[in-house]
Specification:
heterodimer; A: 122 residues; alpha+beta; OB fold (Dihydrolipoamide Acetyltransferase, E2P); 6-stranded antiparallel sheet; 3-stranded antiparallel sheet; 4 helices; 9 strands; 19% helix; globular; B: 381 residues; Gyrase A, domain 2; Alpha-Beta Plaits; Elongation Factor Tu (Ef-tu), domain 3; 7-stranded mixed sheet; 6-stranded antiparallel β-barrel; 9 helices
């Protein structure tokens, strides 16, 4: 699946949807496919201060543990409880219902566009 | 680097498999979903490509005696068509590999080794057979291996056109009776469209099932025939990810995780596999008779709560977390049981089922309880 054009990406295989000063964050289709069936998601609590490129959560599959990196500096304003309850949403709808966090950011770092991300994962 | 490719690679590509490197082989890790493939093997049937496994043939008038000297069990006691799980030990009593040995003739045995160890096993067998009238051939590159595993595996084989018994009825009408009465750890000589296939009732999943050894040049034809016959019965191709969670639930050791050159069979709960009653010497005998140190760690099953799995190399501690008492060797969230399970080596004082322990799961101490193996046992019909 090609990366959606309307999103930005990190080299750690997260996608970012920017809306005003809030970034919605998830993992890419490439990342979920590499992990396999996701069985456990650990997300930071609302109100947690996060820094870009640091580990803020975990995404576990039957086979392995993936780390979730914060793509931006800021504060967690929402964590997707639906994904905590049904981790398979990360596999079935990584760019939609499988979103993980909303972070109110102070400054947006440089992120990859869809074409650059597709190039990275080719 | 994966430079070795299964003869079924194109079939896997066509089925949309994701691949992984396994012991230098590029093998399917999953086709669609680890969990769906795992569930299919527990509930219907799964099809595995195990062509990476090593196949070594030992042949000669003294092949049985050579194997009795080379491995831990008594292979001379096997009847033709019988198989046995055994261990190749080093002189220090450690495990070089775990093996299944099939007696395929009076003077002929097929030794199935783990992919990573095939060369080492062939070399060791060749060296150990040196004083016997027996020859050792590493045929790993000339043998493909397909496993059909699950409660409907037998039906899948019956529905597969072109299977017959060697020397049996050409249209295979005697196959149902022969396969139906084939016991666990027995094998028979069959054919698929007139080419030889060794059909064994063995596996590594904790379910009923069969393993089919054939020449690589028609492996894909056999694979496609099994898929075609099995799909209406619920058979799906299954990758190495499902194979690993299946064997873990069944409490079966995996070389490199639960077994290695420094681990005595008794530590792994495999003392019974070493036949100290057999006449004559065998490699590792003296060391095994002396046994591991009294405080040597032993393999146990661990069951946890919640959904966070303990994984290989995580530390195991006493329930009050005051003392480190072992380490995890394999672990996963059990797809069948719904809670985390693990295999771990722990101090003998902690081996009793019911013992409360904790595992350091990336900084979080998770409670685990020592559990008798296997975690999962199929209901026998």
């Amino acid at each position: 699946m090609a990366a959606p054009e309307n999103l930005k990406y990190t080299e750690e295989h997260e996608w970012v949807l920017v809306d005003g000063d809030v970034a919605t964050v998830g993992i890419t289709d490439y990342a979920q496919a590499a992990l396999g069936d996701v069985v456990y998601v650990d997300l930071p609590a609302v109100g947690t201060a996060v820094s870009a490129a640091t580990v803020v959560g975990e995404i576990e599959s039957t086979k392995s543990v993936g780390e979730l990196f914060a793509p931006v500096d800021g504060e967690v304003v929402e964590a997707n409880q639906a994904v905590v309850d049904s981790p398979d949403l990360v596999n079935s709808d990584p760019y939609g219902a499988g979103w993980l966090l909303k972070v109110r950011f102070t400054e947006l770092p440089e992120l990859l566009d869809a074409a650059s991300y597709d190039e990275l994962t080719k | 680097m994966s430079d070795r490719v299964s003869p079924l690679a194109e079939a896997h590509e066509a089925a949309g498999a994701q691949f992984t490197d396994f012991a230098g082989w590029r093998m399917p890790v999953r086709y669609s979903s680890d969990l769906a493939e795992h569930r299919a093997v527990r509930e219907t049937a799964g099809l595995f490509d195990l062509s990476h496994m090593g196949e070594i043939v030992v042949v000669g008038d003294e092949a049985a005696a050579a194997l009795d000297y080379a491995v831990a069990g008594r292979m001379s006691a096997l009847e033709r068509g019988q198989a046995k799980y055994t261990l190749l030990l080093n002189a220090e009593g450690g495990v070089i590999d775990d093996l299944i040995v099939y007696r395929t003739g009076d003077d002929r045995f097929l030794v199935v080794a783990n992919a990573a160890n095939a060369g080492v096993v062939a070399d060791a067998l060749r060296e150990r057979a040196g004083g016997f009238d027996a020859r050792v051939f590493d045929e790993s590159d000339d043998v493909a291996l397909i496993a059909v595993q699950g409660p409907r595996a037998f039906e899948v084989l019956l529905a597969t056109g072109g299977l017959a018994l060697e020397g049996g009825h050409p249209d295979g009408k005697d196959v149902p009776e022969a396969l139906g009465s084939l016991r666990y750890y027995r094998a028979l000589a069959g054919t698929f469209r007139e080419r030889p296939v060794l059909i064994a009732r063995t596996g590594y999943t904790g379910e009923d099932g069969f393993e089919l050894f054939c020449a690589p040049d028609f492996a894909r034809e056999l694979w496609e025939a099994l898929i075609e016959a099995g799909t209406p019965l619920g058979l799906v191709p299954a990758g190495l990810a499902a194979r690993d969670t299946l064997r873990l639930e069944a409490g079966m050791p995996l070389y490199g995780h639960e077994l290695d050159a420094r681990t005595f069979p008794a530590q792994a709960g495999l003392g019974r596999v070493v036949d100290l009653g057999k006449p004559g010497d065998f490699v590792g005998r003296a060391a095994v008779e002396r046994g591991p140190a009294a405080d040597a760690r032993v393999l146990v099953g661990l069951s946890g709560e919640g959904r966070r799995a303990a994984r290989a190399d995580y530390r195991v501690l006493t329930a009050d977390s005051a003392r480190e008492v072992g380490a995890v060797t394999s672990g996963a969230l059990s797809p069948t049981l719904g809670h985390p399970i693990a295999l771990a080596y722990v101090d003998p004082a902690c081996r009793e089922p019911g013992t409360q322990l904790v595992v350091d799961v990336r900084g979080a101490l998770q409670p685990y309880i020592v559990t008798a193996l296997p975690f999962y046992k199929r209901k026998r019909s």
